[in-house]
């Protein structure tokens, strides 16, 4: 290689950059002579130039130059006459090595850095057998899961399963809605019908010569061929008072629990309807009975009379709950509270319609338990110096029973006055709802034989009925009992709406 060529080999094989010549042309090198013409500053500029170029190429992913600019030597001891470097062979071999190997290694290192190291496999846990499969026990589990899901859906949205679009039911109230008394309701489908309660109501003062009011039976006459039976909820007069007048014309089976049937029996005897007792159908609570197109179940509830019931009436259209008359009493005298569990059962199944008692619903608070009356009786009997005369509904057996119990505690004989009171109390004793010794009772004509502080009189007339025993006592018309100033008189009932004036009249007479 001649001096000219050697002088010009200062270019790099870069794509876009051309090399400038730094050696002056007018100063030729002499053979074997070392030139120190390039200043230290120029040398620094050149070295920085090539270093920057190499870094730029690497940044663009280009390989390093095959012939990088060799470093200048300051002396010529290791240079031969042809300008060749006389360095040891080891250095020469290092120069002859290809420059791509380090680049390849760098690329491999970059890939390894990008690739995340694989995590070591965790040892397998001792998991149980799979629950999904074709074995019988696995299929049983899957079936149970589906059934439980359907149960939850039915529980949360029971109404969507009712079929009231295809099957219809008509409810026709003949009395008792928007009024106190005269309760009577007809339930009917296309092929059958039932009647719920047949009660009486009290006349107003303007109805002279009228003792009681009964529902209009004209609609019953129109559908009498469809009627399959009469259903009774409880034995209050506003629910059974018109039964004997109804059965003088119609002959349908009558379904009820024992106490209502017993009190209806008393009415049939009074009205000469003893033969109609063959239509009695005694029922058990929590047991459904199929009556025409209706499945009827009696549910125990607490009320101011023993053996009261609500009704669950199941039809193809859905279930109807008829509460009858009720109050939620958690501490009743007989120890049998309302069967809330059974009501909840039908609530979960889904209720198409609720027919509820609403008496006193406009008043805030709640009705006190029947057992709370006992404390009042105790306070009265303990202070009474003369006779105690207590008036209440003849059907309120538990109220009568409590008065008698406290009278016995203070060594008083008991006189029951009023035909309905006598009959109802005797019926409750005969059926075993209350237990009293018959020896504690005296007749009205025997009251005068005992001291005043030894007598308790239990009578009817709490609603101011003009024919009641209390009314006759107040007007001094009773044959045996005359009111004395020392008598302690208790009216243990509220006035039924509409009876306020008659009750006030009795109080004024007293």
From TrEMBL:
Positions of the UniProt region annotated as Disordered: 1-133
Basic residues bias: start-end ranges: 16-27, 116-127
Domain Metallo-beta-lactamase: 181-377
Top-rank taxon, per record: Bacteria
Family matches, as InterPro entries: Metallo-B-lactamas, RibonucZ/Hydroxyglut_hydro, RNase_J, RNase_J_2, RNase_J_b_CASP
Biased composition (Basic and acidic residues): 84-115
Pfam family, one: Lactamase_B
UniProt xrefs under CDD domains: RNaseJ_MBL-fold
SMART domains from the UniProt entry: Lactamase_B
Alphabetized UniProt keyword annotations: Cytoplasm, Exonuclease, Hydrolase, Nuclease, RNA-binding
GO molecular-function terms, A-Z: exonuclease activity; metal ion binding; RNA binding
Name of the protein this chain belongs to: Ribonuclease J
């Amino acid at each position: 290689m001649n001096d000219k060529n050697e002088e010009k080999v200062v270019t790099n094989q870069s794509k876009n950059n051309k090399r400038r010549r730094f050696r002056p042309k007018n100063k030729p090198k002499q053979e074997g002579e070392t030139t120190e013409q390039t200043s230290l500053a120029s040398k620094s500029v050149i070295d920085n130039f090539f270093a920057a170029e190499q870094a730029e190429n690497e940044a663009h992913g280009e390989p390093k130059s095959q012939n990088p600019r060799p470093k200048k030597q300051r002396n010529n001891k290791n240079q031969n006459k042809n300008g060749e470097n006389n360095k040891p062979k080891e250095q020469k071999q290092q120069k002859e090595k290809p420059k791509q190997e380090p680049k390849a290694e760098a690329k491999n290192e970059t890939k390894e850095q990008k690739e995340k190291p694989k995590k070591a496999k965790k040892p397998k846990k001792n998991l149980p057998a799979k629950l999904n499969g074709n074995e019988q026990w696995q299929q049983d589990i899957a079936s149970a899961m589906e059934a439980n899901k359907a149960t939850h859906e039915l529980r949360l949205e029971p109404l969507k399963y009712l079929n009231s679009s295809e099957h219809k039911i008509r409810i026709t109230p003949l009395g008792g809605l928007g009024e106190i008394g005269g309760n009577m309701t007809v339930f009917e489908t296309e092929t059958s019908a039932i009647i719920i309660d047949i009660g009486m109501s009290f006349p107003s003062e303007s109805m002279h010569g009228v003792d009681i009011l009964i529902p209009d039976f004209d609609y019953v006459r129109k559908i009498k061929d469809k009627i399959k039976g009469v259903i009774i909820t409880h034995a209050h007069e506003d629910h059974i008072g018109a039964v004997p007048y109804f059965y003088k014309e119609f002959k349908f089976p009558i379904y009820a629990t024992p106490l209502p049937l017993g009190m209806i029996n008393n009415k049939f005897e009074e009205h000469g309807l003893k033969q109609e007792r063959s239509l009695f159908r005694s029922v058990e609570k929590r047991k459904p009975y199929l009556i025409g197109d209706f499945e009827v179940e009696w549910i125990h509830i607490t009320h101011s009379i023993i053996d009261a019931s609500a009704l669950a009436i199941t039809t193809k259209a859905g279930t109807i709950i008829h509460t009858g008359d009720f109050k939620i009493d958690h501490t009743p005298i007989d120890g049998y509270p309302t069967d809330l569990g059974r009501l909840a059962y039908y609530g979960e199944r889904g209720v198409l319609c609720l027919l509820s008692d609403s008496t006193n619903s406009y008043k805030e608070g709640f009705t006190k338990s029947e057992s709370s009356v006992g404390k009042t009786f105790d306070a009265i009997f303990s202070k009474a110096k003369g006779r105690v005369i207590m008036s209440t509904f003849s059907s309120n057996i538990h109220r009568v029973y409590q008065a008698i119990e406290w009278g016995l505690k203070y060594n008083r004989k008991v006189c029951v006055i009023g035909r309905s009171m006598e009959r109802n109390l005797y019926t409750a004793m005969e059926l075993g709802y209350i237990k009293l010794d018959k020896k504690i009772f005296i007749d009205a004509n025997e009251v005068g034989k005992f001291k005043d502080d030894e007598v308790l009189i239990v009578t009817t007339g709490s609603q101011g009925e003009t024919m009641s025993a209390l009314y006759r006592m107040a007007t001094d018309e009773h044959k045996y009992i005359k009111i004395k100033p020392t008598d302690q008189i208790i009216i243990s009932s509220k006035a039924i709406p509409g009876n306020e004036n008659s009750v006030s009249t009795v109080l004024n007479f007293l």
